Amino acid sequence: MLANGIVRVNLHKMFCLFAIGLLILAPNAIAQQNGAKPPAVSPMSPMPANAHPSFEVATIKPANPNETSGNFQIGGHRIFIENETVDSLISAAYAVHPKQIVDEPAWLGTAKFDIEGQADLAGVPNLQQIQEMLQGLLRDRFGLKFHRDKRDLSIYAIKVAKGGPKMTRSPETSYGLPSQTGHGHGGQIERKFTNNSMSDFALGMQTYLDRPVVDETGLAGRYDFTLKWSPDNLPVSEPDAAPGIFTAVQEQLGLKLEATKGPADVLVIDHVERPSPN
Predict the structure, then answer these.
(1) pTM, to two decimals
(2) What is the mean pLDDT of the chain?
(3) Quick one: CA dihedral 22, 26, 28, 30, positive or negative?
(4) Three-state helix/strand/coil letters over 83-148
(5) What confidence tens digit (pLDDT) does each residue in 87-109 have?
(6) Is the keyword DNA repair in the record (predicted)?
(7) What's residue 234's pLDDT?
(8) From the centroid of its chain, how far is CA 103?
(9) What is the per-residue pLDDT across 45-62, written as a single tens digit (0 to 9) for each?
(10) b/e string for 27-62 if b means 16 or more Cβ within 10 A?
């Protein structure tokens, strides 16, 4: 949470959150978590869950070519996107790995844009509502048209390892949305998965891997488990550091990530153009 009630997240990592139903918390929701009473009336209240917002106004400009990092910020019903490619926007809007976007022009992954706009409804949109807004923006300002298909891609297939799964079944009385929460410490990542199907888990793992992840476990139902690993590209300061993600998945969950080629859902780009003038 930044000053003035602005929430910042990484756009590249948003696509997995869309699919598992997490919300960006407004200040009053955070206050409730901390045991404080939220204000009776707040301009930062959540947008009604059944609302279908769109961008009332949106300014799109080429990003500063000297900028190296991207940001996604939310302040009330205003949204600020900085230094992001159209590939990233599509990934977030439709909850797909960038490699599931095919037949696109090369500039989709190289040209970066700054976008500033506001919703046509009051309140802080949840992630599904942001997704809906991005879909409309891509359609109206970038002329995006696509169709869905399956293609053989380089993927990671999640399979059951020898010895079987080591995860706990979620209680039969658990009807909540799946959640994936966690933190990094000492160069390690620890994530808690609650009420997750294997498809939910596969989608979440795409955030940390360089190719789409497909569930081939054959496991039905939902599970609760924790996964702790050390990313290959980060230095680890803990003496008893967790293993890399591939070893961690096998040792801790009784599953395995197998690099292979196989059919995966894709978005086939039929038409897209550089954004219309503001």
Answers:
(1) 0.73
(2) 82
(3) positive
(4) EEEHHHHHHHHHCCCHHHEECCCHHHHCCEEEEEEEECCCCECCHHHHHHHHHHHHHHHCCCEEEE
(5) 999 998 998 999 999 999 999 99
(6) no
(7) 64
(8) 22
(9) 888 889 999 999 999 999
(10) bbeeeeeeeeeeeeebebbbbeeebebbbeebebee
Q: What percent of the chain has pLDDT over 70?
A: 80
Confirm if 70 and 83 have CB atoms less than 8 A apart.
yes
> b/e string for 80-115 if b means 16 or more Cβ within 10 A?
bbbbbbbbbbbbbbbbbbbbbbeebeeebeeebbbb
Q: Where are the alpha helices (DSSP H) in the chain?
A: 14-19, 27-33, 86-94, 127-141, 198-205, 245-253
- Estimate the crossing angle of helix 86-94 against helix 127-141, to 10 degrees: 130
pLDDT of residue 72: 79
Q: Which residues contact 179 (CB under 8 A, 6 or more apart)?
A: 20, 22, 192, 193, 194, 195, 196
Give the position of tokens 């954004």: 275
Q: What are phi and psi of 242, to 5 degrees?
A: -70, 155
Residue given tokens 């038409």 in the structure block: 271
φ, ψ for residue 240 (rounded to 5)?
A: -110, 60
- Chain-centroid distance of CA 99 in Å reads 14
Contacts of 48 (CB under 8 A, 6+ apart): 121, 123
Distance, CA of 63 to CA of 85 (rounded, Å): 9
**pLDDT tens per residue, range 126-149:** 878 888 999 999 999 999 999 999
Q: Could you tell me if 73 and 11 are in contact, meaning their C-beta atoms sit under 8 angstroms apart?
A: no
Place of tokens 């070519």: 65
